[in-house]
């Protein structure tokens, strides 16, 4: 038989090093085998998904099926005009804190696709993106895989509550040899759920402007504020010009991560045109656009959903926080999102990344609970774990925390 043709260098590199982190691989493997009737079953709390609102979504998802022929044919690859108008109207009222026109909107298959494509068109291989940490683990895949750019992390201090410190941004920027093209800010934060203050956001944006950087503001958890601190959209705090780009998705606030729909809002026409040149490879299906557009257009339903969704998150967060408190595990303060960041520094055998990995593995093996290790979130020091409290009902999360507490007992 003839020799099998080889892969390209790019293909071979992907085949050799899967970009999927270990905690996600463990999740898919263990959840496939989990028996729901087994009291000791695997409990996955490592993936940021909101599974608490299916009953709010299901009636709407199953009733709105009056599909017309336009939805099954080719349309604008960045999203149909009708869909982008629905998003612009909804987002202007509820998310961005200012009026955004449908022409400024682009949709692609998930926030990940939006980010990957933005960076592709604003940076070249080897260029850098500055990211305050702790941060969402997936940015490394989005930026370093196909774009071949580099993440430059600016580690914020746990002892200052992970506040975005402009001096740390500036120092990191000055000390790196990597040419930085953009600053990526996520508000509310993943993994802390912290809502950055208006001063933090204004300070970071104004510093990035002084360096001539693109600014990407990821507000994917913007509608999931469920505590006492309100979310204030960055677009209502700073001048919105062609250097600042806003990212959102239906994955978190609307709890439909599997439908794959991310949203970009930017006034930068050149950026939008460049992204449109790549949109064909990451289009949101016409049927999904139709469904999601109809959900947003039914404003009474959408508002009821948002109210119900936030109440569920508030309750789930409270149950998790109380259980963590009883277990004596400190948490980083947060008022939004689907997770809490646990400070487990006191439980490590020593302050090292190896000890953190051992801690994560012990919880996985002995408690059969999966958390997101702080290393994956690029926390500046070892000893933090993200717990996604919306991935399972509150009583199950409470059981998971009790199991963890059992493992931590001396
Ligand atoms: C901050 C942040 N950005 C982007 C994403 C990716 O979202 P999507 O599933 O829409 O690609 C996530 C998912 O966890 C996230 O937390």
Strand order of the largest sheet: 2-8-7-6-5-3-4
Question: How widely separated are the two ends?
Answer: 61 Å
Structural domain count: 2
Give the averaged pLDDT, no decimals.
96
Instruction: Give the CATH class of the largest domain.
Output: Alpha Beta
CA radius of gyration is: 21 Å
Q: How many strands appear in the DSSP assignment?
A: 12
The ordered H/E elements are HHEHHEHEHEHEHEEEHHHEHEEEH
CATH topology of the largest domain: Aspartate Aminotransferase, domain 2
Sheet of most strands: 7 strands, mixed
Low confidence ranges: none
Structural class: alpha/beta
Shape: globular
Plain-language structure description:
By secondary structure, the chain is α/β, with parallel strands linked by helices. It has 2 domains: 9-55 and 302-408, Aspartate Aminotransferase, domain 1 (Alpha-Beta Complex); 72-298, Type I PLP-dependent aspartate aminotransferase-like (Major domain) (Aspartate Aminotransferase, domain 2). The protein contains 13 helices and 12 strands. Strands 2-8-7-6-5-3-4 form a 7-stranded mixed β-sheet, sandwiched between helices. A 3-stranded antiparallel β-sheet has the order 9-12-11. Helix 4 (81-94) packs parallel to helix 10 (286-297) and helix 12 crosses helix 13. The longest helix is centred in the last third of the chain and has 28 residues, at 299-326. The radius of gyration is 21 Å and the shape is globular. The termini are far apart. The model has no long low-confidence stretch (mean pLDDT 96). Pyridoxal-5'-phosphate binds next to helix 5.
């Amino acid at each position: 038989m003839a020799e099998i043709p080889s892969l390209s260098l790019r293909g071979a590199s992907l085949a050799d090093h899967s970009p999927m982190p270990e905690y996600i691989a463990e999740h898919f493997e263990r959840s496939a085998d989990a028996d729901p009737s087994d009291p000791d079953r695997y409990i996955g709390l490592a993936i940021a998904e909101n599974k608490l609102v299916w009953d709010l979504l299901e009636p709407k998802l199953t009733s709105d099926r009056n599909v017309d022929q336009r939805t099954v044919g080719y349309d604008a690859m960045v999203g149909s005009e009708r869909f982008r108008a629905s998003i612009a109207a909804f987002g202007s009222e509820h998310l961005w804190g200012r009026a955004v026109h449908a022409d400024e909107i682009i949709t692609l298959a998930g926030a990940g696709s939006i980010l990957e494509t933005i960076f592709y068109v604003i940076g070249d291989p080897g260029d850098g993106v500055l990211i305050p940490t702790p941060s969402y683990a997936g940015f490394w895949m989005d930026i370093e895989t196909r774009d071949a750019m580099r993440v430059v992390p600016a580690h914020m201090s746990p002892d200052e509550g992970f506040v975005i410190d402009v001096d740390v941004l500036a120092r990191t920027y000055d000390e790196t040899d990597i040419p930085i093209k953009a600053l990526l800010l996520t508000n509310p934060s993943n993994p802390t759920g912290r809502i950055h203050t208006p001063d933090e956001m204004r300070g970071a944006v104004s510093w990035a402007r002084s360096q001539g950087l693109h600014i990407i503001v990821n507000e994917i958890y913007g509608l999931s504020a469920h505590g006492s601190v309100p979310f204030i959209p960055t677009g209502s705090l700073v001048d919105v010009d062609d250097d600042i780009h806003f990212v959102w998705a239906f994955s978190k606030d609307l709890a439909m991560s599997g439908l794959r729909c991310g949203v970009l809002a930017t006034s930068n026409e050149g950026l939008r045109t460049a992204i449109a040149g790549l949109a064909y490879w990451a289009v949101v299906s016409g049927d999904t656009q139709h469904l999601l557009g109809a959900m947003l257009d039914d404003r009474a339903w959408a508002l009821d959903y948002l109210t119900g969704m936030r109440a569920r998150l508030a309750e789930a967060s409270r149950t998790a926080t109380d259980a963590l408190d009883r277990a004596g595990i400190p948490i980083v303060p947060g008022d939004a999102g689907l997770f809490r960041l646990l400070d487990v520094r006191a439980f490590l055998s020593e302050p090292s990344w190896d000890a953190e990995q051992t801690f994560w593995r012990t919880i996985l093996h002995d408690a059969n609970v999966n958390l997101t290790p702080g290393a994956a979130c690029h926390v500046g020091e070892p000893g933090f774990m993200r717990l996604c409290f919306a991935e399972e009902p509150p009583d199950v999360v409470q059981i998971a925390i009790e199991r963890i507490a059992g493992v931590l007992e001396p």
